[in-house]
Amino acid sequence: MSEFWLISAPGEKTCQQTWEKLKTATSYPNSLSTNYKFHIPELKVGTLDVLLRLSDELARLDSFVESVAKKVARYMANVLENGRDKLQENLLADGVDLITYITRFQWDMAKYPPHTQSPKSISEIISKQVTQLDKDLNSRASAYNNLKGNLENLEKKNTGSLLTRNLANLVQKEDFILDSEYLITLLVVVSKTAYADWERKYETLAEMVVPRSSFPLSEDNDFGLFSVTLFRKATDDFKLKARENKFTVRDFEYNEEEMRADKEEIKRISKDKNKQYGPLVRWLKVNFSEAFIAWIHVKALRIFVESVLRYGLPVNFQAMLVQPKKKTMKKLREVLRDLYKHLDATAAFNSVDVAMNVPGFQLSQDDYYPYVYYKIDCNLQYLNL
To answer: What pLDDT, in 10s, does the model give residues 184-220?
Structure first.
């Protein structure tokens, strides 16, 4: 499974004993989970009031950063189009797959220096970083989507039914009477079931239709495209009678310059789209990594702040990453509750205390655990891809 539970429990005589106790409880008599130590550096504690406010701020930041990481991942899937099978190899964090990054998590000391920055300052750095990333994504996505949309609209005109598609690629100069003061060539779409009807009637739909001037030019699943030549002054009568007989006259004028310009426009936009594709995918790859790394650092901040609020000072807790086995989640939850149920009585501050003191924080009984708990899910299905 790619779901992880990030939990913490207060240190026994040593934090190592807390870790060993978890491993023993989850491995005997059945193996319920795979466990990893989650390393958090010594962070500045600050005052209780600051921590209480920060707890609420981090909850909102957690949701925001996660949403941006998902947004980047979804947009990468959209950009890759037919290459979506390569999505997972592009959704990396610090050059490794997401599960490897989480299970081997190391705090980024250079980007978020814990000895010179408080948890609040670090959260503000992350907030500014991800907010700017989100703005940049919107800007880049808008530019690329405009190119992609324009290209799709142009290409769509060259596909589909003969009733609606651009006919320029289906005809040639030789199909038309051009530069004539008196004659004009029209293009007519006829249902396949009405071919015989068309051949029998087209010369009589108006008075000045040139005999035997209709030729088949193209065909799709349902319709055929025919040319017909007549005198210009009979055009309106011919269109009216054609409509009455369920023949569709397409408005089309053969113009080589316009046709050439349309083809050049498609080539230009396609070239611009291809030119942006590589740099955009690289940008998305780099910034998904940045967003995901920032998200896990927010989780680390939350586990630290909540553990101090729950277990008090001096700071003494062990953060642990628990990966449940596929069919043991319910049993694992029961084991953890039994293992840590004593914390309800010994915790200096529990989540109910936090809920009462932090405006806007709501907690249901189902959300409450005697230990500090957050979920991390790395499943691509979870990312709604």
So the answer is: 999 999 999 999 999 999 999 999 999 999 999 999 9
Rg (CA), the chain: 34
- 187's CB contacts (< 8 A; 6+ apart) are 167, 171, 217, 225, 226, 227, 249, 250, 252
Any idea of the CA torsion for 102, 103, 109, 114, to the nearest 10 degrees? 90
Plot region of 362 (φ>0 → left; ψ -120 to 50 → alpha; else → beta): beta
Which two three-digit tokens encode residue 155? 């290409």
For residue 314, is the peptide bond before it cis, meaning its omega torsion is within 30 degrees of 0?
yes
- pTM for the whole structure: 0.79
Q: Distance between CA 360 and CA 298 in Å, rounded? A: 19
Average pLDDT, the chain: 89
The token pair at 218 is 């193209």
> How many angstroms separate the CA atoms of 7 and 374, rounded?
6
CA 81/CA 274 separation, integer angstroms: 13
CA-CA distance, 87 to 292, in Å (whole number)? Answer: 15
Side-chain-side CA neighbours of residue 111 (13 Å): 13
